[in-house]
Amino acid sequence: MRGRSTRPHAACVWLSQFLMVLTVGCAGNQSMFNPQGPAARRIADLGLLMIAICLVVYLVVIAVAAWSLLRQRQASDDSAQTTARLGAIVAGAVAVTAAILVTLTAVSAAAGRGLTSPTSQDTVTVDVIGHQWWWAFQYRSDKPQDFVTTPNELHVPVGVPVILRAQSRDVIHSFWVPNLQGKRDLIPGQITTTWIQADRAGVYRGQCAEFCGHQHAKMAFVVVAEPMDAFQQWLQRQRQPAAEPTGDQERHGRDVFLQSTCVTCHTIRGTDAGARVGPELTHVGSRQTIAAGTLPNSVEHLRMWIANPPSIKPGTRMPPHGLSPEDFEAVVSYLRSLE
Amino acid sequence: MESGSGQSGAPVERVEPYPDPAAEARLRRQLEETWHVPAGFLGWFAVTDHRTIGRRYIATAFVFFLIGGVLAALMRIQLAVPDNHFLGPDLYNQVFTMHGTVMMFLFAVPVMEAMAVYLVPLMVGTRNIAFPRLNTFSYFVYLFGGIMVIVAMLVNSAPDAGWFAYVPLSGPDYTPGKRADFWAQLITFTEVAALAVAVEIVATVFKMRAPGMSLNRIPLFVWSMLVTAFMIIFAMPAVVLGSTFLLLDRLVGTHFYNPAEGGDALLWQHLFWFFGHPEVYIIFVPALGMVSAIVATFTQRPIFGYRAMVLSLVATGFIGFGLWVHHMFATGLPQLGLTYFTAASMIISIPSGVQIFCWIASIWRGHPRLTTPMLFVLGFIAIFVLGGLSGVTLASVPFDLQVHDTYYVVAHFHYVLLGGAVFPLIGALYFWFPKITGRMMSERLGVLNFWTLFIGFNVTFFPMHILGFQGMPRRVYTYPAEMGWGPLNLVATAGAVLLIAGGALFVFNAVRSYVAGTIAGDDPWHGETLEWATASPPPVYNFLHIPVIEGRHAMWDRSLAPPVVTGLRSDCREVLITDVMGAEPVHAYELPEPSIWPFLCSIVTSAFFVGSIFTPWALPVSILPLTVTLIGWFWPKPHPNLRGDQPLVRPVEAEG
Fold first, then answer.
1. How much is the pLDDT for A6?
2. Which chain A residues are closer than 8 Å to B396 by Cβ?
3. How far apart are CA B539 and CA B122, in angstroms?
4. Sheet harboring B574-578: ordered strands across?
5. For residues B125 and B214, is the Cβ–Cβ distance under 8 A?
6. So what's the pLDDT on residue A2?
7. Which chain B residue's Cα is nearest to A34?
8. Which chain A residue is nearest to residue B93, measuring alpha carbons?
9. Are strands A148-151 and A134-139 parallel, antiparallel or unpaired?
10. What does the pLDDT read at residue B185?
11. Cβ atoms within 10 A of the Cβ of B626, count?
């Protein structure tokens, strides 16, 4: 904003108040103006600056238009002199427009430079895999048996840039956590990369941002940012195979699970279930949400979901179960026990 | 010329100080007979008259506009409250896809072309549009395409992959059934219809202008339609290619877009947006011409900066082709390339800015009469400038990565398309309604109509900017209550109620005025351009004498005894062909008679398009009937009055 004087003009005060209201009004848990990481903060600052400039331009244009409409006409309005002056004013306005646009382009390019890759070399890499309509996050390791895949829940260490290598199993999706970073599309046949970094421990909601079919609306996930120690512990826990069921009901639940159609889609490491069509369930009990960020992970919601998934997400590939009430309860208990 | 015997055959300009009333009446009768619109049931399908086709085109486009509006209302009902069950995802996805598709392909582009079909021949001072049979063909192809997709919708087979139908979602693997095929073929229908009209407009503007209307005297509306027509000609082939590839992938198993077989999913986005971005200018540029026409008339002064305005239109036409990647910032293309598209997207606001500044200068100088059309222009400025500025923010790659595919973008494009194109269009309909129907629209209802639409529009779409900041993605059929998007969505839905009321008010006003409006007379607004020189509605031959243009502002620069063209035959459909630059008379040319063949050809074409959704055999099967109809269409038929020694094209000498 060139020409901003050091004295706060009334207009500037008003403008900053307006922007504050806007920002506060946007303080939701999925707001781009509630940045919780360096990338999102950079974009939010750029956004506020651009909105402020555009707002000023808008008010000036509308004020001039209103004045032009309401002013008293004068006899000299049609004179050649006036025409020449109007021409000069229009040319001046165009020049100012061009200057503002050049400034905005430069400011935007400068903001963009810092966004493509993180400055720190010390990074964690996670593969993001999009499916209709859920996410898989894969943590690689030197040993293949230590690979960890968590559906719909991305754990990251606080203060460390996390490189995300994104790919899609089916159609185009878009990875988006507004509190942390702008979007990156997941394109079949390609690997795209982006990065996120959370400054504070917390849970940030993300959601698919490219229309991907029936349940595009319910293809959400959470990013859980925790201190490095906690993150490492979590990763270590995830590497373990599924816990052996302890109670009778859980054991029965596992048997039912392994003998029913569940195994045609799901993996539970440590058992014979190893299909990759649906989300992995090895540690499903420890997750915050089920059905791709759609329901909180409680026993009632799990029951609701397994009983009839299409009633919650019409179009989902997961069919209603065909189990007896006892078997159904056993499976729910077993899944709850997989922490 | 009065006798129509075609003695010398050379159209020349003639000053007509004392017209002979008896001769005038004779000429009028003969022209009426020559240019008659075919009557009867079959005649309805054989009409080649640009006013009739233009009126039908406008009315049809408005029917689709209302359908699109009803679809929008359904969406607003569904989104009014969180976790709503009014529409399920299957229906909602069809509804939003159809809303976008109908509005873009069946309303916005066709209605702008329709206005040109009606107005351009009148504004350039000729008797019909170039290639009138093609015009008829274009209308029926458009109509059948629209009917096809509406029928598909009614049998629950509407496309549901979004109006830009990204692959692979719209491909054979993820949209089985015929939904995406209906979408792809609708695109084909629209392309064919739009390309036909575009070619007619270019030919009419370049070759059929009245003598004296040199390039620097063409009305701004005609310039805007010329630029639009060229944009259509250059943009449509990209989407023709894209939708054909899609159809081939779906119908015969090619792999243009299948990455697993060496195809590329992003290829679709490049092909589509290379058309899709110019597309929004194809909708918006005609609106700029309408605004210029309205501002000039109600300030009773020429638009300030004619040359700057024309160059801005042309610049918009060129730069519009260099922005398509700004729809693809999130796909991970190389950074340097993206910066180029940022710069190009910023630059295009300069020509728009020039026009806004010139209109404000015109308003400053002219002190406009605040009639309904002028109110719509002022509303356009208030809305469009905001939409343009939000467009500037979207040009920035980092900012776009956050707001891309959110309700911020939804707000933006409704500000530029509804505010930037539909407001001027409705203003233009209030403005030209008296010319088209011979009756004025009610001003009192018009003012009410404006305020309902203006307030309704802003209440509906302004909150969407904030919803976008709050992270609400577009194209979601519902959202959880805890996201906090409920209240603003409810406000938007309330605004939509006003918008619907405004639309209904417009329809009511139009129908009522059509039946019982005050008689307008030839020139109720003291207009600037040639269409006001003739009766309202214009006679079938448009002008008794083809006028000779004496200045840039045809009506205002007219002398007391204006010169006219003589020597054009009145016993056959002869029009004057002039040269591109100076509009000097070159020769007389006979336009074809009305014919049923273009209609038959459009039926075969449509059958081919619809058939190829289901089987590749549609192509070989339709070739023969298509050939027959084309032979019928182009069968050389000597005019009964045409003597053997009179070729269809007669060289003439220009005089005066």
1. 46
2. 46, 50, 104-105, 108, 111-112
3. 11
4. B574-578, B585-590, B649-651
5. no
6. 40
7. B470
8. A214
9. antiparallel
10. 94
11. 17
Average pLDDT, chain A: 90
Q: What is the pLDDT of residues B575-633, one digit of tens each?
A: 999 999 999 999 898 899 999 999 999 999 999 999 999 999 999 999 999 999 999 99
Instruction: Report DSSP state, residue B587.
Output: E
Separation CA B317–CA B375 (nearest Å): 27
Q: Which residues of A touch B264 (CB under 8 A)?
A: 189
- Whether A124-238 shares its CATH topology with A248-336 is answered yes
Average pLDDT (B313-331) is: 95
Q: Is the alpha carbon torsion for A50, A56, A60, A61 positive or negative?
A: positive
Closest CA in chain B for residue A191: B332
Rounded Cα gap, residues B188 and B268, in angstroms: 15
- Are A188 and A172 a contacting pair, CB within 8 Å? yes
The CB-side HSE value for A3 (13 A sphere, CA atoms) comes to 6
Distance (Å) from the alpha carbon of B535 to chain A's nearest alpha carbon:
31
**Would you tell me how many other CB atoms lie within 10 Å of the CB of residue B498?**
19
Cross-sheet strand order for the sheet of A202-207: A153-157, A220-226, A202-207
Q: What is the mean pLDDT of residues A114-133?
A: 89
Q: Which three-class secondary structure state does DSSP give residue B484?
A: coil
CB B426 within 8 A of CB B432: no
pLDDT at A182: 95
Cβ atoms of A231 and A56 closer than 8 Å: no
Residue B41: enclosing H or E segment and its boundaries? helix B40-46
Q: How many alpha carbons fall within 13 Å on the CB side of residue B435?
A: 24
The whole-number pLDDT of residue B555 equals 93
pLDDT, tens digit (0-9, with 9 covering 90-100), for B216-255? 999 999 999 999 999 999 999 999 999 999 999 999 999 9
Quote the CA–CA distance of A234 and B15 in Å, as a whole number: 94
**pLDDT tens sequence across B334-383:** 888 899 999 999 999 999 999 999 999 999 998 899 999 999 999 999 99
Termini Cα distance of chain A: 53
Using CA atoms, how far apart are residues A297 and A299, in angstroms rounded to an integer? 7
Helix intervals (H) in A71-164: 80-113
Bridge partners (DSSP) of residue B649 are B589
Q: Does residue A48 belong to the interface with chain B, where contact is any CB pair within 8 Å?
A: no
Q: Is the ipTM above a cut-off of 0.90? A: yes
pLDDT score for B337: 87
- CB pair distance less than 8 Å for A211 and B161: yes
> Where along chain A do its domains lie?
25-116, 124-238, 248-336
DSSP at B107: I
Helix (H) or strand (E) holding B515: helix B486-516
Q: According to the 3-state scheme, what is the secondary structure of A150-218?
A: EECEEEEECCCCEEEEEEECCCCEEEEECCCEEEEEECCCCCEEEEECCCCCEEEEEECCCCCCCCHHH
B300 touches chain A (CB under 8 A): no
Using a CB-CB distance cutoff of 8 angstroms, which residues of chain B are in contact with residue A187? 265-266, 331-332
Any bridge partners for residue B650, and if so which? B588
| Dist. CA B510–CA B318, nearest whole Å | 36
> Can you list the alpha helix ranges (DSSP code H) found in B258-305?
265-299
Whether CATH 1.20.1290.10 fits A124-238: no
CATH topology of domain A248-336: Immunoglobulin-like (2.60.40)
Closest CA relative to residue B341, chosen from B274, B402, B249? B274
Q: Does B331 touch chain A (CB under 8 A)?
A: yes
CB contacts of A30 in chain B (<8 Å) are 470-472, 483
Q: Which two tokens stand for residue A176?
A: 């988006």
Whether the bond between B635 and the residue before it is cis, its omega within 30 degrees of 0, is no
pLDDT at A321: 85
Contact call for residues B217 and B578 (beta carbons, < 8 A): no
CA B60 to CA B54: how far, in whole Å? 10
